[in-house]
Design a protein that fits this description.
Porin, 16 strands, 7% helix, globular
């Protein structure tokens, strides 16, 4: 009888298992199922998401017989973030500018190296939102209303892309006190951009009297998840010119489950700091106030929110100032907070001492994953 060497058989089986394991990545790639004994492949934690804002609008322009109807892809974004180590992280976000023009393009809006050692000690470097007003730090996707940054007040600091600038900043949360400050490049929208020796110095201080808002970014509403009473002051300066904003948010879940939101901001921008104004202006001053109520009852898969916003801004121009008042009324259908909502909106822009009056009615869709 032939004798079997048990040790040799065991060694042979081990060799065959090792050879078979080499084919596991290929098997998985073509849809196969890896055996239970396959070795684990470790990847760093990675988060991938996307955002979409699209609308249909009818616009009435003063002095024109035409009332254009437009379907617009307002914005499309891709979000990628991951951890290099427990304290070193990376964020990359892109934006498609949906102006539907020949120069529409996908651009990098965030590219951030994040060194996050503790809630009190965080250093970010790259391209991101500098310390600025609440509106800039929540942007269109986390705003309460649909018509973001149309009033000449919110998000008026200079930027390279979607409110972002290139630089480095410190930020920290000290329970209910939030601090951030940094130095940034001078964007081309700033009059001092031709001098490479200058930088923008930016800072923000905020105090949350009720619930804290941890993290760098902010919201315009929390849809009742938090009770908020917050006051923030931000400033940026370069070459003797400054932009200063004061903003506040109060949000309270009241008896019956409804959510009341009140938001406001005052802004003063010296000429180089008016991100969207008039060529040759010396400065601008303005404010806005917003009130919204989210009804507690569900209608279908969502809740109804009624919102009103009023803004007034004055541009200091040689000869004669130009005043702009904006009124916005929204009926929002909130399905899943910022990830799924539909807005029926009316926006009236009324200029004094300048042409450009418009009335716009539309419906907007926002989705995020």
């Amino acid at each position: 009888m032939h004798k079997v060497d048990v040790g040799e058989v065991a060694a042979s089986m081990r060799r065959r298992v090792i050879k078979a394991a080499r084919w596991l990545p290929l098997i998985a790639a073509v849809g196969g199922t890896a055996p239970a004994f396959a070795a684990d492949i470790s990847l760093p934690p990675l988060s991938i998401g996307a955002g979409l804002r699209s609308s249909f609008t009818n616009t009435d322009v003063e002095g024109s017989d035409e009332k254009p109807n437009d379907f617009t892809l307002n914005s499309a974004r891709l979000y990628v973030s991951g951890a290099v180590t427990g304290q070193i992280k990376f964020t990359l976000n892109t934006e498609y500018s949906g102006a539907d023009t020949a120069d529409s393009k996908v651009q990098v809006i965030d590219a951030i190296g994040r060194f996050e050692f503790s809630p009190q000690l965080n250093i970010w470097a790259g391209r991101f939102l500098p310390p600025s007003d609440r509106a800039n730090l929540h942007g269109p996707y986390y705003a309460n209303n649909w018509g973001f940054a149309v009033d000449g007040i919110e998000d008026g600091y200079p930027f390279y892309a979607a409110g972002r600038d290139n630089g480095v900043a410190y930020w920290g949360d000290f329970d209910k006190l939030k601090l951030s400050f940094g130095v940034f490049d001078v964007p081309s929208t700033n009059a001092a951009s031709g001098d490479g020796s200058k930088v923008v110095v930016a800072g923000r201080v905020q105090y949350d009297f009720w619930d804290a808002e941890p993290g760098y970014y902010l919201n315009s509403t929390y849809y009742g998840d938090k009770d908020i009473l917050a006051l923030g002051v931000a400033a940026q300066g370069v070459d003797g010119d400054t932009g200063v904003t004061v903003d506040g948010l109060m949000e309270k879940k009241i008896a019956g489950g409804g959510v009341l939101s009140l938001e406001g901001e005052y802004a003063h921008y010296d000429a180089p700091f008016s991100g969207y104004g008039y060529a040759g202006q010396d400065s601008s001053d303005g404010f806005f106030g917003l009130a919204a109520f989210l009804f507690p009852q569900k209608i279908g898969i969502g809740q109804i929110q009624l919102l009103g916003k009023y803004g007034s801004n004055s541009y200091d121009l040689p000869g004669q100032d130009v005043d702009l008042t904006t009124t916005e009324l929204d009926v929002n259908y909130v399905i899943k907070a910022f990830n799924a909502r539909v807005s029926l909106f009316y926006i009236d822009s009324d200029y004094k001492h300048a042409p450009g009056d418009t009335q716009q009615v539309g419906i907007g869709l926002q989705l995020q994953i």
